[in-house]
Amino acid sequence: MAHHKGTSSFIMQRFTAALMIPLGLWFLIGVVSHLGADYEAARAWLEKPLNGVLTALFIAIGAWHMRIGMGEIIADYIASGLKTVLNLVNWLVCLALIAGAAWAVYNVSFAG
Amino acid sequence: MADSAQTARPLSPHLQIWRFTVTMAASITHRATGAVLYGGSLLLAVWTYALAFSPSLFSAVSGFVTSPVGFIIVAGYVWSLSFHLMNGLRHLYWDSGRGLAVPTATKTAWAVYIGSVILAAIILWAGYAGMGA
Fold it and tell me: What residues of chain B lie within 8 A of the CB of A20, using their CB?
């Protein structure tokens, strides 16, 4: 990544990757294997504190990991001034993802 | 940020210059699945939004997931996550300084391809078998 923070990006990429291994397995087993659930059942599932916290963590830590990875792709293939714009869009998408997931989980857990 | 040293950086060599090996394919697939998961996480955000705020949007999402196009998208996401997760373990193992010999890296690349298909198939079977009626 071309912002003179290569070492910290490298470390955070590995750190978030390590966290995503158990979270990813949990997500595959806990969420995807319940794809058939109807609205009430899915909501009851997400209302459980552990499921809400882990869902929010999966999305938030995943978004952090995504930002670093997409930043690498942009740095590798985009040379023009477009790079700065794409990096900003990348930041905004990942921030919106974190905020959106936190807001949704909060609403299911406390405002339902 | 936009200093001249930055704009003069070289680009990465593009896909067409590599001779085909399974390790090269796994490397490219790792990046491609990462990009797929980037898009897939936005769909996941739609799912959590629907669950929190809109039962009608949720039932539309559920209906889409069971359609042929929806199945292909879900299957693509599940396999991408399986592959990226397993190949990520391979990367973390390399970071420890082990598993870097070519014969080992070739074996683990095949293991990741085969293992990720098996994991994705089990998860998808569990997810879609539960739908029944």
Answer: 85, 88
